[in-house]
Amino acid sequence: MRGMNSFNRTAELPTTASRVEFGAEAIRVILKDERVIEVPLAWYPRLEFATAGERSKVEMFGSGVSLYWPELDEELRVDDLLMGHRSLESPASLARWQDEMNERRASRTSKPWGQEAPLPS
Length: 121
What we know:
This protein is of the alpha+beta class and about 120 residues long. The protein has a single domain (about 15-100), classed as 2-Layer Sandwich (NE0471 N-terminal domain-like), CATH 3.30.2020. Helix content is about 30%, strand content about 25%. It has 4 helices and 6 strands; from the N terminus they run βββααβββαα. It has a 3-stranded antiparallel sheet. The termini are far apart.
């Protein structure tokens, strides 16, 4: 007589995230089933380069199957995180993206025309 199989693979549901947290050097994804995935930020250079504010603006798609950061144009699938897949972005593509991000950040921090500080007399 065989024992009961606790693993019903025919009824598997997609692995989904409930929230995302960032440490100094890692991204932590808490799954809806309470498991935790933690991987180095260095695996995802756009997230590593991002500010804390930019990282906080994450959207979940497919009820948490996919994580997307619109300001960074970065998307991670939870299943890819589980399988240990790293970013495949080329160094040249990343460099262009970093230049664009630096320009956007500079334009956000510059004051509109006419609101500069007065020149000293």
